[in-house]
TrEMBL record:
Keyword annotations: Membrane, Receptor, Repeat, Signal, Transmembrane, Transmembrane helix
CDD domains assigned: FN3, Ig
Protein name: Receptor-type tyrosine-protein phosphatase H
Domain Fibronectin type-III: 239-330
Signal peptide limits: 1-21
Every Ig-like domain range: 144-233
Organism annotation: Geodia barretti
TM stretches of this protein: 428-455
């Protein structure tokens, strides 16, 4: 009568799943027995030793038996709550000793506690003792026909290029486990492991090579007439693209911009990480459509490795990376304030930092003069004195700031000729001339030509240069000077002939 059933049971014995060898050195299989009244439809035998071991299990139409292979000592059955069953008692579920085995039996139409029943096979003949030495254990699960409750928890991990999704089911035989990604069934990389036969806890894992964004589901169902199933959803973000940077004018901030993934999918934000300047950090930016962020408080002169990943409720995307080096030079600004007959005045500043000390070094490019230095000064301005008139100088300002070492910037400046006789009016004219030339040196070609004439007084072509200068000046002031200093321009234009007389004398 049961030959077909026994063949099924034998085939199920080979459908084994891995169990942690140090905790439960057993493999498991599930069996289904249809009883006459259908009050219990499952007996789950989950304790057969891998090597055949010391225990033997058998099935009848009413229950399960267990005993030692060598026939030495029979086992004892325990309720799911840990209390021992009685011999042929009045309970709905009881144990009955037959030869060298003990059977787990159920009375007809009985309604007994559902859950995991266990049979301990001792190493000696002492029964019903709390301190027996157990050499083998058999576990059997009884569940109602209406189905037991299956609860699911889970988590997600990512190691190197491997994504592992895990869901844990507890309560009832997990006979059907299905993994899907975006509604497509996934079978490769799946595994089910029995954690605890007493609580019927199973760990179901799905291993995926690389990050694949999408909607993952773990569905666990038992084989009751009323199927019980749960789902577990995992979201994986997509990575941004086109990451670029722009160093801001203060030299300590970097504007990052990127292109959000299209479509956004499960990307809900971004995590930006950076390392450099002896420190590291990260910041979370919310919003999948966000496309920029400014990192502040960086150190000039340092190199930073920056990465960005898309984030979701579960798994971040792969990272996009770049390196940024914050240079010193562009953030030191030197300005020529005034160019006089025998002096040049300068001022300087460093954006976003404090100047600790400075040094001004100058060297004559044309005309007489030698290299000289101001020495160390604490101010951010300096007037170079006692210069030879009508000479061009290369001036280098070197500073040391509170957050970094020395760096410098060079400018070209020149001394101007004395216009007219000595006296206050001449001083005003010279001051006005110097102020205008300080601006015009960058923007007004006509005044630059006049300066060249000043420095070519010993050349026979000086007259030709002066005539060219006068012609250009008569065309009117450059647009940049019309709103800057019309009065000063008039002084320059009106005294062109005087300047020529001075040069040629």
């Amino acid at each position: 009568m049961y030959s077909c059933f026994h063949l099924v049971m034998l085939s199920l014995l080979w459908s084994l799943v891995e169990v942690h060898s140090q905790t439960f050195p057993y493999v498991s299989f599930m069996s289904q027995i249809s009883l006459a009244n259908n009050s219990y439809v499952d007996i789950s035998l989950v304790g057969r030793p891998e090597d055949g071991g010391d225990s033997v299990q058998c099935h009848t139409d009413l229950g399960t038996c267990c005993g030692p292979v060598d026939g030495s000592h029979r086992g004892d059955w325990y309720f799911p709550d840990g209390t021992i069953l009685g011999f042929s008692g009045n309970g709905d579920i009881y144990e009955q000793r037959v030869s060298q085995r003990v059977d787990l039996r159920r009375r007809n139409n009985a309604n007994s506690p559902t859950g995991i029943y266990r049979c301990d096979i001792p190493t000696n003949a002492v029964h019903h003792a709390t301190d027996i030495s157990v050499r083998d254990t058999v576990y059997v699960g009884l569940y109602p026909a209406s189905g037991g409750t299956v609860s699911i928890s889970g988590g997600v991990t990512f190691d190197s290029d491997q994504l592992t999704l895990t869901c844990i089911s507890t309560g009832g035989p997990a006979t059907t486990v299905t993994w899907t990604r975006d509604s497509t069934t996934v079978t490769q990389g799946t595994q089910t492991v029995l954690n605890d036969p007493v609580t019927a806890q199973y760990t179901h894992t799905l291993t995926v090579a690389g990050r694949l964004g999408g909607l993952y589901r773990c569905t666990v169902s038992n084989n009751k007439p009323s199927v019980v199933s749960k789902t577990f959803t995992v979201r994986v973000a997509s990575a941004p693209t086109n990451l670029v940077f722009e160093v801001q004018s203060d030299g300590t901030s970097v504007l990052l911009t990127w292109t959000p993934p299209d479509p956004l999918g499960d990307t809900t934000g971004y995590r930006i990480s950076f390392t450099g300047g002896g420190s590291s950090g990260s910041v979370d930016v919310s919003g999948g459509s966000t496309n920029s962020y400014t990192l502040t408080g960086l150190i000039r002169g340092e190199t930073y490795d920056i990465s960005i990943v898309g984030t979701s409720d579960h798994i971040s995307s792969e990272s996009v990376e770049l390196s940024v080096t914050l240079v010193h030079g562009p953030y030191l600004t030197v300005e020529v304030v005034m160019m006089g007959v025998s002096s040049i005045s300068l001022s300087w500043s460093v954006a976003g930092d404090t100047v600790v000390d400075s040094e001004v070094v100058w060297r004559a490019i044309s005309g007489p003069g030698d290299r000289d230095s101001s020495g160390s000064i604490t101010s951010t301005s300096y007037t170079i004195p006692d210069l030879q008139k009508l000479s061009v100088f290369s001036v280098t300002v070197t500073v040391r700031t509170s957050s970094s070492g020395d760096f410098s910037e060079s400018v070209i400046a020149f001394t101007v000729p004395a216009c007219g006789s000595s006296g206050s009016s001449s001083s005003v004219a010279v001051a006005a001339l110097g102020g205008v030339l300080g601006v015009v040196i960058v923007t007004a070609i006509a005044v630059q030509v006049m300066v060249i004439v000043f420095f070519m007084k010993k050349l026979q072509r000086a007259e030709e240069y002066t005539a060219t200068l006068a012609a250009r000046l008569k065309r009117g002031p450059p647009e940049s000077l019309k709103t800057t200093s019309n009065v000063a321009y008039s002084v320059v234009r009106g005294e062109t002939d005087d300047a020529y007389e001075t040069v040629m004398s």
